Amino acid sequence: MINPDFIRLVEQAAGVLAREPLRLHVLPEGCPVVYIGDTHGDSDATRRIFARFPPDRYILVFLGDYVDRGPDSLGNVRLLLAEKLAHPDRVVLLMGNHEGWKVAPFQPADFWHGLPTETAELLGRTFLQLPLAAWHPLGVLAVHGGLPEVGSLEAFGDIENGDANWRNVTWGDWQEDGTPESPWDSRPSLDHKMFERISARLGAKVLVRSHQPFAPTYLYEDRCLTVFTSCAYGDGHRQVAILRPHQCIRSAKDLDVIDV
């Protein structure tokens, strides 16, 4: 049984998200930014992050995949939405493939299948309002999975839920030397050549992503950083990346990757 307070929380969050940029969130300069990978039902990790990096001192960018697999998806969503309401300009929630369940269902989806139909519909619609990317003027682009075939940052606004570019962003797997990392051939991939071509168009020096817990931390001549933050794959994957203000960004290794 879903608590009515949770329904009200989702409805309030939907109102806040409706007033924000739909596809691309531009981050302000001058404040440290913490990039948090998939939390996948790990409310304990999320709670630790808010305690260690309070939103009044940091901007927190969550890279998607908040539900399924972990032990407390409902609690994780409740915590994230409550902090979003309390700090709408300091907590950024990006869309991952697990937030796109309403337009692209998948298996396994234990959280979604356990919700009452009306609750799943409401939360699914709300999650589809989440931005796909966060851009920092120092040249750091954050997404959940891969890069869309677009010619500019402004073109993120043309991406529609469920289209090919949406799938690139939410489902995109890294690929090296022509061999996909994942066994799912239907997933879009992001290889080195594609990364170089699209990042040059967008003016991105560094890409920060999540989505794959066993991907190498650094890819593509250290310009692509994969960070994961959930106990769903073991505590060793509870990491975040920190962008300090006024840094000179040359590679992903200019960000601090730490355990939480």
Please provide a written account of the structure.
Mean pLDDT is 94; it is low at 180-184. Helix 1 (4-18) packs across helix 3 (73-86). By secondary structure, the chain is α/β, with parallel strands linked by helices. A hairpin with a 4-residue loop joins strand 11 (218-219) and strand 12 (224-226). The longest helix has 15 residues, at 4-18. Strands 1-5-6-10-12-11 form a six-stranded mixed β-sheet, with no helix packed on it. Strands 4-3-2-13-14 form a five-stranded mixed β-sheet, covered by helices on one side. It has a three-stranded mixed β-sheet with strand order 8-7-9. The protein has helices at residues 4-18, 43-52, 73-86, 110-113, 117-127, 164-171, 192-202, and strands at residues 24-26, 33-36, 59-62, 91-93, 133-136, 140-142, 173-176, 179-180, 189-190, 206-209, 218-219, 224-226, 239-243, 256-259. The protein has a single domain (4-178, 185-259), classed as Purple Acid Phosphatase, chain A, domain 2 (4-Layer Sandwich). The relative contact order is 0.17.
